[in-house]
Amino acid sequence: MKQENSIAKILPVLFGFFIMGFCDVVGITAMHVKEDLLGNYSPEFRDTLSNLIPVALFSMFLIFSVPTGILMNKIGRKKTVLLSNAITIVAMFIPLIQYTFGMSLLAFALLGIANTILQVSLNPLLSNVVKGDKLTSSLTAGQFVKAISSFCGPFIAAFAASMLGNWQYIFPIYAVITLISTLWLIAIPTPEEPVTGKASSFGNVFGILKDKTILLLFLGIVFVVGVDVGLNTAAPKILMERFGMNSIDAGYGPSMYFAFRTAGAFIGAILLVKFSPVKIFKIITVAAVLALIALIFMADKIAVFALFAIIGLAIANVFSIIFSMALQSKPDKANEISGLMITGVFGGAVIPFIMGLTSDILGSQVGSLLIILLSASYLLFCAFAIKPRIV
Q: 296 exposed, middle or buried (CB, 10 Å; 0-12, 13-18, 19+)?
């Protein structure tokens, strides 16, 4: 009975990671916004402008992560998750009210706020129902659920376009799924960790960065999200540029990436129970860097899709490894570290924006790939600089 109760408490929390994956529809949206709304702009600015969609979303992580960690100490982790779901539902209806570039930016800014709150609160909430050395594996299982959501995004958009007449109907579908997640979480009692000690402040949270290991891991979050969002955003544009594919068919590039990122997260949830996260971190970052170097030069369509798959496999577990290392390094500061680490997700705003500028300057998506490669190179450095004592 205890095991059944435990599973009953874990499942609605894990399903929350599916909602977390909604932010990855940003790549498809940037592509459609470029095609639908930016046709009258000069070609050398279209990538920069369309990449403002991920900027609008992921810049919210920089602004709202630490305040969410502080808020979570006051109202609890579960209520914070429920707040994020409410904002997500509102954001999903904005593109249907008016489909303009400005309203698209507003919708994804709100989705960014919601996703920030969710990522800060959901990871610690999972630690309430999963204890001890199973946390890294459980966080990876959560990333597996998130990866399924990311993988489904292009297919849901294609279904909405072909069966419902407009790709934008993906948004009300997402709103309904979020409502189901909300009701499920409300229905299941979830244990809350009591808050002890004095309330956190911005100074207390950012003061944690004085720890060199935490700083190294924080920058790791910045760059792993940059790689993830960057490739999600660049993949369809690479396929359109190199092989003349239309926007719908090019959307299967991110699907290939997310399919293998999903498989990688599933495999990682198993391997991380048996093997050292530090060793796995080293192997997968080497693989990611080598695949990105090959992708810069590859001109064969099948090989490009294969490289998307390899990078998806390689990058799948980096976020959860880094995040669990940070949480385990200072368990008594879990809420504050969660807020701090999720602040690093703003890398999903900075990296794509730099990619857009670079690709517009060079007139090629090779510029975007060079920025992604530099980000992955930091992860490689981080993997070998991490001290095994924290795992």
A: middle
